[in-house]
Amino acid sequence: MPDNDKIYQRIARKLNVDQSECVLLLGPELSVNAAGVSAIDYFSALSEKNNVAHYFPNENLFGFVSKQAEEDARYEVVDFYENCANMELLQLIYRIKIPLIINVCPDRSLNDYFRRQLNNDFTQGYFSIREYHNNQEMPSPTKNNPVIYNLFGRVDSEQSLIITHSLLYETMDKLLQDHSLPENIERFLQKASCYIFLGFKYDSWQYQLACHKLRVKDKDLSSQVLSTPEYEEGHPVGFIMCNHFSVNFTPLSAAETLKQIIKNCNKNTLRKDNPLGDFSIYISYSWQRPRKAGTIDKETIVDWIEDDLKVNPKYKGLPQVFRDKSRVENGDSIAAFMNNLSNASMVVQVIGDDYLKSPFCLEEAMGIWNSEGGKNKALLLVAADVDLSTKGIADYKQYWKEKFEKEDDRIKNGNLTPIEQNQEREAHEFKRLVQIYNFIDGFLIELKDTVHIQLDLEKDLIIESAEVDWLDEDKRDALVTGLVNLVNRILIKD
Question: What distance in Å separates the CA atoms of residue 188 and residue 184, rounded to the nearest whole number?
């Protein structure tokens, strides 16, 4: 495993030179809309409609029964990408003076953010075989005049969007030809010595081919290639990327990776920080239980928090609030969702008994608590139905032991439905249950000793709050303090 600290330092060193030759590439795992829904979740739901014959999750492409069906779906794809943004991530990208930014998704959220900050002191363009002649004259990318380039079409040109295999094949055929990109971008890529890939899973063949086009291979030994998210050790795709393209994978999220790079950059490489920051808040809770009319439950509290953050003038509309109500049992979807969660500035965890018996919620909890800095950005609200006594913790441990043993017996005895007779899926499910079993008791013991707000929904909504002594973390302190005060205030109001 390479020393990631040294890699961040080397990348920063290459960014710090006046004539920087660095490229930032933004991948599909970063795509999340204003409702907190990832691209793969959104398109999976879209594929369930009658006008879609097939959906290919690795490529996020469709097969349609008619041309009209394709046009109808195109409007919904446009709607997703027009509302696609993670403000904290955009602000972190903006802070670093990277000459060339290539986005493989068609959204223009970064373009719009740069326009608001830099007016017209940057250049933008996109590749499309249907507008092939319109995109050849562009200036050379520099730190002071960066270029943002969408590699597979852009949302404001609907006909450039790639949603079918036939159009992807045509696009890759043109893209892989010599001189297919604007001349100054081709020249920049020839001499590029640093590549930062954020949000890529290279299982999709077009991204492996794109690495060839972007000349990631055959660089000298001083070149640096960094990518997130990482693959499990021994994964064949990870092996190919490491050995063929010399990719160094980092376990950090995209946001944390950028923060590490920023920490090692000199002042001349960074744009002025926004003193308010751009915050995104993820609310992690169990929403599956049916709500009773007229009662106040944990979801009511989540509604209050979200509504207050969106309308309270004190926050000036700053926080971007995500709450996940669209989980699906899909490994790729969960991976994309976890990436978005780990990119959040802070996480509000509303933990009840149902949360601790939900595999989805505990997978979120593992992602939060096992990520670097994850615990420090979590505001914990613990319901009264959570038993943190020694016996209570042992009971939760036993609950998950029985779950994975039952699953193990089902697999061994062959008691699976036709849908479940997918060895890869069942192996993932069993592995997840074992991971939760190994995680749950340590998590609860640490939760018991960690500062948290105790919710008692049965006693006039009065709460007890422990002294909060960790609110001096960078720019986060004022917002977290406000949230603590907010939760206290809304829970004791009439």
Answer: 6
